[in-house]
Specification:
Pfam families: F_bP_aldolase (PF01116). GO terms for molecular function: fructose-bisphosphate aldolase activity. This protein has 364 residues and is of the alpha/beta class. The chain has helices spanning 6-19, 31-44, 54-60, 68-83, 107-119, 138-155, 185-195, 226-240, 280-288, 298-314, 316-319, 329-332, 334-356, and strands at residues 2-3, 23-27, 48-53, 90-99, 128-132, 158-163, 168-170, 173-175, 203-207, 270-272, 291-296. Strands 1, 2, 3, 4, 5, 6, 9, 10 and 11 form a 9-stranded parallel β-sheet that branches. Helix 2 (31-44) runs parallel beside helix 4 (68-83), helix 5 (107-119) packs parallel to helix 6 (138-155) and helix 7 (185-195) packs across helix 8 (226-240). The longest helix has 23 residues, at 334-356. It starts with a strand and ends in an 8-residue tail after the last helix.
Length: 364
């Protein structure tokens, strides 16, 4: 397992679109959950993406610092060291859901840091960053996206954008479950006109089709994967009529990639947010329309914590000093329940790889 270079990351994304599969993007909050995600990718023989959110990076830096940039750098450096000791598959690092109010204190400083790395002939710290413009009007969203795409190109990173609103709660941000959860084909065409389809830099687009963060009972979430197909088709037709320039296969630095074809009917590299608990048929249909990355957070959080809870309930009289006893150190040692939690989370990562079709398809 190695950390993806910018060129390798682009190859991963194009291969997924061409092969009609997607990579699980696993949110992590600690070195322990990072190791669990890596274990899962290795067991599934799948390339993948590991990401940290605005709250996750703060948590990484510790309660005393609570510094998102420090946490991001510490996470990425630790991840790079560990990843490069796993042979066989490739992993990319991503920052997830940066809302407008966090840009100047999180993603923009990281992009500046990465531009300096690239200027020194080094690889960037992360391979992609997400700009979450779901809380601002579309015109403003795309104006910021254009600025960030230019910076991302200079930093040799991929930009991810969100068009529409994802319901539920993510790191303290809450959105209602209503009609705003559905992007339109015209939204897709506007994105292509404003950002291009590769010529201005490589990006992924998370159009919303009823997505909701968190876990809900059946019937609450109304996903419409076919909407993604309509968005792709509408933009593809515009290309055919000469209303938008054809998509170009480029790496994150903007360099054309030889031998990389783009399907005529899938001009966008798509992202699926709020995927935890989704119906498997909806997931497969979304992937069929060009989704190459699906965020997985709630399900892996639960898998990790459920294993810890099981250990604590089963061994309550050993992890607690009940009735004046001394307990059992080997049961309250964090490594004992931590290993179980890592194994449980890794198993859920393997399941995600199989559901998305990336298992056994690591690039060689």
């Amino acid at each position: 397992m190695t950390l993806a270079t910018p060129e390798r990351y682009a190859e991963m994304l194009y291969a997924a679109r061409r092969g009609s599969y997607a990579y699980p993007a696993i949110n992590v909050t600690s070195t322990q959950t990072l190791n669990a995600a890596l274990q899962g990718f290795a067991q599934a023989e799948s390339d993948g993406i590991i990401q940290v959110s605005v709250g996750g990076t703060s948590y990484f830096s510790g309660r005393t610092l609570q510094d998102r940039v420090v946490g991001s750098i510490a996470f990425a450096r630790f991840a790079r060291e560990v990843i490069n000791h796993y042979p066989g598959i490739t992993v990319a690092l991503h920052t997830d859901h940066c809302a407008y109010q966090y840009l100047d204190e999180w993603v923009r400083p990281l992009l500046s840091y990465e531009k300096e790395e690239v200027a020194r002939g080094e690889e960037p710290l992360f391979q992609s960053h997400m700009w979450d413009g779901s809380t601002v009007p579309l015109d403003r969203n795309l104006k910021v996206a254009r600025e960030l795409l230019e910076e991302s190109k200079a930093a040799h990173t991929v930009l991810e954008i969100e068009i529409g609103t994802v319901g539920g709660e993510e790191d303290g941000h809450r959105a209602d479950i209503d009609s705003r959860l559905y992007s339109s084909p015209e939204d897709g065409l506007k994105v292509a006109r404003e950002l291009g389809l590769g010529e201005g830099g490589l990006y992924m687009a998370a159009f919303t089709f009823g997505n909701v963060h968190g876990s809900y009972k059946p019937g609450v979430v109304k996903l419409r994967p076919d909407l993604l197909g309509e968005i792709q088709s509408h933009t593809a037709q515009a290309i055919g009529r000469g209303l938008v320039d054809p998509p170009q296969a480029v790496d994150p630095s903007g360099r054309a990639m030889e031998g990389q074809s783009i399907p005529d009917d899938h001009p966008f590299l798509l992202v699926f947010h709020g995927g935890s608990g989704s119906d498997l048929d909806d997931i497969k249909r979304a992937v069929g329309y060009g989704v190459v990355k699906m965020n997985v957070d709630t399900d892996t959080q639960y898998a990790f914590t459920r294993a810890v809870a099981g250990h604590m309930f089963t061994n309550y009289d050993k992890v607690l000093k009940v009735d004046g006893e001394v307990g059992a150190k080997n049961e309250y040692d964090p490594r004992s329940w931590g290993r179980q939690a890592e194994d449980a989370m890794a198993a859920r990562v393997v399941e995600a790889c199989r559901e998305l079709g990336s298992a056994g398809r690591a690039l060689r």
